């Protein structure tokens, strides 16, 4: 058995007769960035949905922190879910338009029973500050933030859960090219500071070369030599 943080073995995802992920295996170590590349429709989203157990795979194993997730009941998965957090491409899509940024960042703490009125607000301010947002932005709604600021707020919300793994699904593709580097630098700093692991989907080869420790390539549901 490997001691990787995430160990995916022979993963299979099917939609009816379509095999979207066909016996895919990879590992991600603590503190490591693995890039997952490939053309549209090759199975990247299906792979990460199965890793996050948002969709139960038809075959294979997803071992996270040494525990096999695919055989766990939802009730057993619940305490593990905070430790693997997604960050999606659309910065506005991952935050509810009706909730202030402060409440969006506080929500994971409340859901996980870790909210404390004495120090909760300070924790939220600290998380916003950590991602480079003035804590005063906590009062705003997502549409009052730029795309880059909103993506930073989404990262703060993910960090509230104290994850070990972030699944980054094209986290800077929707952002203005001039602000992409700032968000990528933030992710790199957070990784160093918190020993976070990243499973990173990205189409931009220059970004992958700069940002990832290793990369794997998918074509038509299978891993191919990079
Ligand atoms: N809900 C679904 N029902 C049926 N087929 C699906 C479903 N979701 C994905 N597929 C099919 O599975 C295959 C893999 O899709 P997937 O979205 O995982 O690829 P992708 O690499 O993430 O693509 P993109 O980069 O465009 O998001 C494709 O052939 C797609 O049409």
Helix and strand string, N-terminal first?
A: EEEHEEHEHHHEHEHEE
Task: Please identify the oligomeric state.
Answer: single chain
Provide the residue-averaged pLDDT.
Answer: 94
Determine and state the CATH class: Alpha Beta
Number of domains: 1
Strand order of the largest sheet: 6-7-8-3-9-10
Structural class: alpha/beta
CATH architecture: 3-Layer(aba) Sandwich
CATH homologous superfamily name?
Answer: P-loop containing nucleotide triphosphate hydrolases
The general outline is globular
Q: Please tell me how large the radius of gyration is.
A: 17 Å
Q: What fraction of the residues are assigned to beta strands by DSSP?
A: 25-35%
Main β sheet profile: 6 strands, mixed
Report, as a whole number of angstroms, the end-to-end distance: 25 Å
Q: How many beta strands in the DSSP annotation?
A: 10
What level of helicity do the residues show? 25-40%
Bound molecules: adenosine-5'-triphosphate
Low-confidence stretches: none
GO molecular function: ATP binding; ATP hydrolysis activity
Domain ABC transporter: 6-226
InterPro entries: AAA+_ATPase, ABC_transp_ATP-bind, ABC_transporter-like_ATP-bd, ABC_transporter-like_CS, P-loop_NTPase
Family: Belongs to the ABC transporter superfamily.
């Amino acid at each position: 058995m490997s001691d990787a943080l995430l160990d995916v073995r022979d993963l299979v995802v099917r939609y009816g007769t379509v095999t979207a992920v066909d016996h895919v295996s990879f590992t991600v170590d603590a503190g490591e960035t693995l890039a997952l590349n490939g053309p549209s429709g090759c199975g990247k989203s299906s792979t990460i949905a199965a890793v996050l157990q948002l969709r139960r795979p038809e075959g294979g194993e997803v071992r996270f922190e040494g525990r096999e997730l695919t055989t766990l009941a939802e009730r057993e998965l619940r305490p593990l879910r905070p430790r693997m957090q997604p960050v999606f491409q659309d910065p506005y899509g991952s935050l509810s338009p009706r909730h202030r940024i402060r409440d969006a960042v506080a929500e994971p703490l409340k859901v996980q029973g870790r909210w404390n009125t004495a120090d909760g607000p300070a924790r939220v301010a600290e998380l916003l500050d950590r991602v480079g947002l003035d804590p005063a932005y906590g009062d705003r709604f997502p549409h009052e933030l730029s795309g880059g600021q909103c993506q930073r707020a989404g990262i703060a919300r993910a960090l509230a859960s104290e994850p070990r793994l972030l699944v980054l699904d094209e986290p800077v593709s929707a952002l203005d090219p001039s602000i992409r580097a700032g968000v990528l630098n933030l992710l790199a700093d957070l990784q160093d500071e918190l020993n976070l692991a990243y499973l990173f989907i990205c189409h931009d080869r220059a970004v992958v070369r700069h940002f990832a420790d290793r990369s794997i390539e998918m074509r038509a549901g299978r891993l191919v030599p990079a």
